[in-house]
């Protein structure tokens, strides 16, 4: 991920007023960046809103979709008031920026490379340059906001079906402030991991590793779903689930294609690699399902797609096409193995109820992708991505590449450690004020009790579900091992 330093910004005045299109503005890059931001936003709203609302049991469809919808809105406001500057502003600590508003419409980014930062690079003090793109700061604020929003929404996948919606409303701004901004500043905003040369092209660590680890941690503190929900949790609408997954897949064009901050060769390579890896991973996951479970699973295919998209993200514009295929093979098999085999044997994972297996599809896949980037990052592609200089994967030089792999491992370890500790502190603090988990009677009823609304009126309007009267119910149908949250996790 290219990064902006503490921004030196100024209003650009012209005779007769302020120019709408100053000479320095690159209209093509600006247009691509706003399109990319919109594509990433569509991944969340409606992408993940539809995916979550369809992938869960019927009685949790409204609640799950609304958790995503609420998080998106809350992040937007928090981001422009204080969180953007904490992620991309002036340094407060080596891993954190100073909070402040990012609301000005007249402040435009002008400089391509800050002179003082360039001098430090020449002196050998840092391994990465810092860039400022040729378009308005407002474009950058909005683009980065979409990444912050989707991170919270991905995290929500771990606690669906039992977290108190009021606790979630408190959790979102707290986690954004004390966890997301730290990872973003450390790896993208000019923090210590950025200057050390840890590569995270588009969020394998900042977004996926952090959301997967924080999701698992939050799931531990919130507690499990009801016994009935853990045993029977079939998707309420598989076709809509595929629609949500499709929006997520196509939206990844902006997710990875927008991160060079320019419509350049690197962005094109990132888009192609993203789709190569996702398709390969989906096929590998599906064939593993056929080999071991005798049937291709639609849910499994969605998960394979997801792990491929996540794994390529840390190095999307920095690896060659053949490496994207190799990464797809591994992203379709390693998370499959941790989900289907390791999960059943590891007591901790059995104890923690990660509703949509976000740990496997995002934390495992994101860390895997970050480490593989350390192996496959191609020197010339790294040079195209301005913030990554003097970097190469292990296959292009054992000495320097081996160091890069080590940096990737350590960078991921920092993200893991920070998220476990800070997410735990946030959950403990919230439960001093309000219960993290819904009461048992609301867990039994679901959406109707929590929101007074239902996704589908399959019986009389306003009538609550009664197991004695409504014996034929979508949530009670016989289903295969593929049900999310069942004994055999997907």
UniProtKB/TrEMBL annotation:
<feature type="transmembrane region" description="Helical">
    <location>
        <begin position="235"/>
        <end position="252"/>
    </location>
</feature>
<feature type="transmembrane region" description="Helical">
    <location>
        <begin position="322"/>
        <end position="343"/>
    </location>
</feature>
<dbReference type="InterPro" id="IPR024041">
    <property type="entry name" value="NH4_transpt_AmtB-like_dom"/>
</dbReference>
<comment type="similarity">
    <text>Belongs to the ammonia transporter channel (TC 1.A.11.2) family.</text>
</comment>
<dbReference type="InterPro" id="IPR018047">
    <property type="entry name" value="Ammonium_transpt_CS"/>
</dbReference>
<feature type="transmembrane region" description="Helical">
    <location>
        <begin position="355"/>
        <end position="377"/>
    </location>
</feature>
<dbReference type="InterPro" id="IPR029020">
    <property type="entry name" value="Ammonium/urea_transptr"/>
</dbReference>
<feature type="transmembrane region" description="Helical">
    <location>
        <begin position="205"/>
        <end position="223"/>
    </location>
</feature>
<keyword id="KW-0813">Transport</keyword>
<dbReference type="Pfam" id="PF00909">
    <property type="entry name" value="Ammonium_transp"/>
</dbReference>
<feature type="domain" description="Ammonium transporter AmtB-like">
    <location>
        <begin position="31"/>
        <end position="456"/>
    </location>
</feature>
<keyword id="KW-0924">Ammonia transport</keyword>
<dbReference type="GO" id="GO:0005886">
    <property type="term" value="C:plasma membrane"/>
</dbReference>
<keyword id="KW-0472">Membrane</keyword>
<keyword id="KW-1133">Transmembrane helix</keyword>
<protein>
    <recommendedName>
        <fullName>Ammonium transporter</fullName>
    </recommendedName>
</protein>
<feature type="transmembrane region" description="Helical">
    <location>
        <begin position="31"/>
        <end position="53"/>
    </location>
</feature>
<feature type="transmembrane region" description="Helical">
    <location>
        <begin position="272"/>
        <end position="291"/>
    </location>
</feature>
<feature type="transmembrane region" description="Helical">
    <location>
        <begin position="409"/>
        <end position="434"/>
    </location>
</feature>
<dbReference type="GO" id="GO:0008519">
    <property type="term" value="F:ammonium channel activity"/>
</dbReference>
<feature type="transmembrane region" description="Helical">
    <location>
        <begin position="172"/>
        <end position="199"/>
    </location>
</feature>
<feature type="transmembrane region" description="Helical">
    <location>
        <begin position="298"/>
        <end position="316"/>
    </location>
</feature>
<feature type="transmembrane region" description="Helical">
    <location>
        <begin position="65"/>
        <end position="84"/>
    </location>
</feature>
<feature type="transmembrane region" description="Helical">
    <location>
        <begin position="141"/>
        <end position="160"/>
    </location>
</feature>
<keyword id="KW-0812">Transmembrane</keyword>
<dbReference type="InterPro" id="IPR001905">
    <property type="entry name" value="Ammonium_transpt"/>
</dbReference>
């Amino acid at each position: 991920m290219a990064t902006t330093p503490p921004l030196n910004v100024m209003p650009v005045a012209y005779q007769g007023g302020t120019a709408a299109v100053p000479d320095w503005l690159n209209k093509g890059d600006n247009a691509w960046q706003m399109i990319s931001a919109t594509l990433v936003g569509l991944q969340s709203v409606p992408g993940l809103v539809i995916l979550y609302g369809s992938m869960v049991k019927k009685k949790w469809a409204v609640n799950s979709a609304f958790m995503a919808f609420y998080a998106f809105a809350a992040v937007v406001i928090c981001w422009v008031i204080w969180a953007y500057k904490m992620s991309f502003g002036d340094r407060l600590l080596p891993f954190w920026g100073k909070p402040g508003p990012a609301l000005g419409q007249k402040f435009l980014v002008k400089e391509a490379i800050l002179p003082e930062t360039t001098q430090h690079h020449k002196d050998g003090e840092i391994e990465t340059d810092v860039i400022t793109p040729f378009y308005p700061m407002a474009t950058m604020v909005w683009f980065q906001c979409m990444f912050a929003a989707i991170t919270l929404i991905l995290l929500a996948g771990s606690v669906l079906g039992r977290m108190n919606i009021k606790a979630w409303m408190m959790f979102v701004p707290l986690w954004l402030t004390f966890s997301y901004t730290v990872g973003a500043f450390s790896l993208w905003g000019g923090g210590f991991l950025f200057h050390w040369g840890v590569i995270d092209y588009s969020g394998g660590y900042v977004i996926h590793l952090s959301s997967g680890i924080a999701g698992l941690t939050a799931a531990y503190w919130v507690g499990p779903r009801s016994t009935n929900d853990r045993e029977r949790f079939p998707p309420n609408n598989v076709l809509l689930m595929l629609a949500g997954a499709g929006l997520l897949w196509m939206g990844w064009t902006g997710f990875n294609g927008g991160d060079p901050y320019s419509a350049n060769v690197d962005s094109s390579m990132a888009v192609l690699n993203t789709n190569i890896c996702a398709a390969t991973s989906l096929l590998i996951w599906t064939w593993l399902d056929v080999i071991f479970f005798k049937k291709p699973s639609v849910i499994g295919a969605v998960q394979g797609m997801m792990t491929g998209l996540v794994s390529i993200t840390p190095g999307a514009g920095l690896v060659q096409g053949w490496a994207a295929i190799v990464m797809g093979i591994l992203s379709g098999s390693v998370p499959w193995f941790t989900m289907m085999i390791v999960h059943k044997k590891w007591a901790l994972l059995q104890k923690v109820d990660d509703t949509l297996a976000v740990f496997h599809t995002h934390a495992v896949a994101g860390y895997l992708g970050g480490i593989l980037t350390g192996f496959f990052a191609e020197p010339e592609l790294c040079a195209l991505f301005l913030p990554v200089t003097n970097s190469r994967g292990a296959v292009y030089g054992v000495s320097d590449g081996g160091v890069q792999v080590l940096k990737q491992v350590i960078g991921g370890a920092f993200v893991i450690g920070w998220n476990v500790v800070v997410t735990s502190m946030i959950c403990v603090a919230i439960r001093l004020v309000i219960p993290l988990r819904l009461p048992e009677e609301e867990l039994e009823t679901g959406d109707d009790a929590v929101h007074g609304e239902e996704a589908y009126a399959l019986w009389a309007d306003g009538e609550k579900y009664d197991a004695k009267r409504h014996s034929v119910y979508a949530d009670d149908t016989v289903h295969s091992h593929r049900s999310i949250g069942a004994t055999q996790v997907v």
